[in-house]
Write a structure and sequence with these properties.
Blueprint (H helix, E strand, L loop, with lengths): L2 E2 L2 H11 L22 H23 L5 E2 L1 H27 L8 H4 L11 H12 L3 H9 L4 H29 L5 H40 L3 H24 L4 H23 L2 H7 L3 H17 L2 H30 L2 E2 L20 H8 L7 H7 L12 H25 L3 H8 L2 H4 L3 H10 L9 H10 L12 H15 L6 H36 L11 H23 L5 H30 L6 H24 L7 H13 L11 H42 L3 E2 L19 H11 L12
Antiparallel strand pairs: 1-4, 2-3
Amino acid sequence: MASHTSASAVGAHEESSSRASGADAQLPPVSVEDRKRFTPVSILVWAVVALLGGVAWTMLALHRGEMVNAIWFVFAAVSTFAIGYRFYSRYVERAIVRPDDTRATPAEYKADGRDYVATDRRVLYGHHFAAIAGAGPLVGPVLAAQMGYLPGTIWIIVGVILAGAVQDYLVLFFSMRRGGRSLGQMAREELGVVGGTAAIIATLLIMVIITAILALVVVNALGESPWGVFSVGMTIPIALFMGVYLRWIRPGRITEISVIGFALLLAAIVAGGWIAETDWGVQLFTLERTTIAWAVIIYGFVAAVLPVWLLLAPRDYLSTFMKIGVIAGLAVAIVITQPQIAAPAISEFAGRADGPVWPGSLFPFLFVTIACGALSGFHALIASGTTPKMVEKERQTRFIGYGGMLMEAFVAIMALVAAVSIDRGIYFAMNSPTAMTGGTPEGAVDFVMSLGLAGVDVTPEQLTALAGLVGEDTVVSRTGGAPTLAVGLSMIMGQLVGGEAMMGFWYHFAIMFEALFILTAVDAGTRVARFMLQDTLGNVAPRFRDVNWRPGAWLCTAIMVAAWGAVLIMGVTDPLGGINTLFPLFGIANQLLASIALAVVLTIVARRGHARGLWIVALPLAFITVVTTVASMQKIFSPVPAVGYWAQHAAFKDALARGETSFGAASSTEAMEAVVRNTFVQGTLSILFLVLALTVIITSVLAAVKALRSGEVVDRQDPYAPSQRFAPAGLFATAEEKELQRQWDALPAERQPVRGH
């Protein structure tokens, strides 16, 4: 339902309503005034934070020809993120968002106990963070380490503050104001038939690619690893137990079940190590990657159709508890052990397009290799999928949307540090595909030494010894980024606790930690994809828009799982190494989706009459549009087979026509045919994604210009409904919020608001 009002009327309503109490006169107030003021102490604290950040950035940027201490990465990230959250996110809130806690959220006025569930902000933060923080912040920075540590560090920290967190925050808020509508549906409402249809098709197709690549990283991490398979598999029954515990056994006991869940996780890791040392355990849990892929596909379907409180929310909260704990522990370990980074600030491959880990130059491919952690379109789907249906109060969106993305960026920085702390020779031996290394320590050494890297000297004995220390048969060509991060984490944590004897435990702990990261994005992504498809089909058959209609939910889930599952199987069986060929497509698709999300937000902001805040959205939109357009053009038109999909397609097709039985990395005719087939799919999708995204962006810009010229305020948000519940806005309640919470807690049980978790 569209609301047409003047800008002054909107401002007056929101200003007056911010002081209102609950609609029920017998209830305490539902909101508090935001009265934060600077004091001499707070000014001093922020001055110290800014100074520390400035020193850290100076150390990272100016060190050349010598090793740099890893602690400066931690200080630069924490200081900059703290300033960004305190000042820039507050500016975005005041310039564009203008939340109103007297207004009921969809979780309140649409509560159904299944998808629309008012959720404690801390649990929802965990769900949201777990859902958005998939493979990207772990894999992207590891792969980008090929370029050196400085370009990736700058893009992650600056990019998240000005782009990624802004997108997540605004999409979450606007979706919440519109009843939890999907990104595609909001695009259809704001951009009309042409732009809306292009956005819907683009988001559905891109979602398929993104989910498939996320799943592929899991498969690569768990392949031939019985320890990892058992430990990760056990997280599913643990999460189910947590959901039942919070729902029926001990409702609301979040801290209690967190402790229990964490203890069960540690037990699963330790038990995995024991089982991996037995003959029956090795036989039972050593699975081929194709088998693991099918298991992930089945899991994705089941997780997406179960109630959100049973598996998704508790699993996400559990994994978030672990994710944040591990990353915080890694940061503490870095500060204490102070590992020295031998990798160059800017490497030999920054100006070349023939990198062994991934092909392409620094611009534009660094900005699509590191997507999640800086700016990720996938997040817009989560922010307009499950999360807006669970937000309890409007002011919480800043903490959940902007703050959740900053936490993911910190994960990305820690992943980058772990990658660059590894010996460069070992790094390239682990991340170069089997076709280049032969899959043996000797072959890996020959290949790495042929690269001519300054100061790099690696031996087969080093690679064999490292594999033994981490409890694996080999570390050669363990592509995908996850094993590299696990090695880096095991080395750093081993220096803090346990030494070399504990490296096997820390490695598999990291593998489980990473798989948890990614699986939560797979199941949440599948659920969001189902919502998107239901919204789309609802334009033709309105019954599909009913998220509680089980046949429609199951059918749409099956369609989306089949789609990303087919791409996953293609990646698992790809002769060129699925992650090496598909990750650039993943990155480009992800960033094109980000440009679509920002384009939709641009139109909404312009139509709401917030002209002064429009640059906040226009700046990241312009940058990412240029980056993704250039990257797409290179993948489509580059004559270099390693870079261009169609060039690679033509090279292998010509080789088949000549009657050759092997070519390049493909050692058989079947493998060559697979490359021809895969590159055709990848090249076609590259063209389709670019055309659809540019259609949406152009339509959005024209709509925004028209709105600014007319001066008419058009806001297609749901009608105002008064809220009858209260909850604090941030992680920690203020003194005023604590006092108001005590008033609500004093109410009789029958008058207490219902909360899912």
